Description:
- By secondary structure, the protein is an alpha+beta fold.
- It has one domain.
- It is about 35% helix and about 10% strand.
- It contains 4 helices and 2 strands.
- The chain has helices at about 20, 45-55, 75-90, 95-100; strands spanning about 30-35, 60-65.
- It has a two-stranded parallel sheet.
- β1 (about 30-35), α2 and β2 form a beta-alpha-beta unit.
- The chain is globular and about 45 Å long.
- The protein starts with 18 loop residues before the first helix and ends with a helix.
Amino acid sequence: MRALRVRLAPPSLEIPASPIEVAHRIAPTPLLLVHGDGDHYLGVDHPLAVRRATGGHAELWLERGVRHAETAMSPELVDRMAAWLADHCGSRTNEAERTAA
């Protein structure tokens, strides 16, 4: 918020910690970072820093030509993410749930 020059007047919410500051807390829970190399809000250095902050306990997918957030969501990418979840988090989702995602 400070970088965007947003002024918070009391009562204000506490500024949340950066993902880089808290990423190490996630391990041993599997973590998948999906980031587009064309993201115009956050450069590739950000997900790389988050992954480093996990001590190597995260997997990073840099998606070529993808921009920011939802604009990257193709059915193929969602299927890849669902398969990753099934492989890394046990078979907690069934086929119908993955298809619905």
